[in-house]
Amino acid sequence: MIARRSSFFRFACAFLFVLAPVWGGDLAKPYFAATKQGAWAEYLLTMPDGSKSSYSYERGADDAGRAVIVMQCKILAGPGKDAKTKLTYILPRTFNLERDGLNYGKFTEKMLMDSGGAEVPVDEKTLEIIRQCTKDFGGAVTFEAAEKIGSRACDRYSYSAKSGGPNPTVETGKLWLDPSVPFAIVRQSAKVVNPDGTPVSQFDMVLQETGLNQLIAEAAATPAPPEIKKAPSKVTLADGFKTGRVGMDIAVVPGSSGRSLLLTLVNKTDAELTVAVPAGEMDFEVDSPVHTLKITTRKAAEVVLPADEKSEPLTVAQRGAHGIAEGHCSLSVYEGTPLFSGSVTMGPLPK
Shortest CA distance to 334 belongs to which of 30, 116, 26, 122? Predict the structure, then answer.
């Protein structure tokens, strides 16, 4: 499983220059206005060494109010010929696709990868690294001129953008955008270099065809049935965490050396949830490097969390001789597997 995830991560990062092209805040128009549910676009990407890949993007049916984008890639010529990948991006409900859609990769809330015909969730650790690898185009895009690409009237932008993550790069290039085209890009031409200027890659991506998945579009146009409100549910913190319904964001209280923590509860469900936090000692089996989180609460509390929302921080004591001494992290459970993301220093706790 670890080898498969590692292979997927390397493959996914290799294509990030097209997965999330640009920041919408610097653009003159809502370029994703034509990217309705069911809309799709296909591209041909070429490199100077003769390598070629085909890319298709489709806006799938929304997932409980979240926009969904499906990307598929096949290498047509060059290293890795015939290799395929399919990634599904699920965006936050609050994400403005029309305005900021060209930068959806940085805001991805969940990601699925195709594995032998089955869609497998990408774990939060890997997804966070992928977000870091995504190019940051904030303030990097400059309008140059109106220009035609074939019969399409486009706006041409230049850009120079950096990426983070384990292998940071700098990408410079040009974008030709048309708001009447699904996914906006008519052409993208760019060079990617390492921070020291050594070349990484160069590519030219050109729109081939666009269309509409009628089944998705018609389903999206069908009026939704009246919403049946779910009855509020109640869960203890221990049971809610163990079953994946409640996550925990942890931050060390400054100056406490880890003896005091700020605990923020996260509702991982799509319905309102009341979390009962008992007074006294609690132990949670979590992912490495924490392994076991030992906390003590002074008094009992009931915290009401709307769907997908977080609580105000609760101050709790961390027990034991060893624990989280510095930093912050997010702890959760997905399908029985504990997950960790963040940056913490584990060490001895003051007496």
Answer: 122
DSSP assignment of 182-216 equals TTSEEEEEEEEE-TTS-EEEEEEEEEEEEEE-HHH
- Residue 77's pLDDT is 96
How far apart are the two ends of the chain, measured CA to CA in Å? 41
In DSSP terms, 277 is beta-bridged to: 301
For residues 312 and 265, give the distance between their C-alpha atoms in angstroms, rounded to a whole number.
8
pTM of the predicted model over 0.85: no
Neighbours of 264 (CB within 10 A): 18
Strands 118-121 and 110-115: antiparallel
pLDDT digits (tens, 9 = 90+) for 244-271: 999 999 999 999 999 999 999 999 988 8
175 Cβ neighbours under 8 A, 6+ residues apart: 21, 22, 141, 156, 157, 158, 159, 185, 187, 188
Are 147 and 156 in contact, with CB atoms under 8 Å apart?
A: yes
Give tens-digit pLDDT for 64-116.
889 999 999 999 999 999 999 999 999 998 888 887 887 788 889 999 998 77
Cβ proximity of 141 and 157 under 8 Å? yes
Domain residue spans of the chain? 2-221, 233-348
Q: What angle do CA 286, 287, 288 make, to 5 degrees?
A: 125
Q: Specify the CATH number for 2-221; select among 3.10.450, 2.40.128, 2.50.20, 2.30.29.
A: 2.50.20
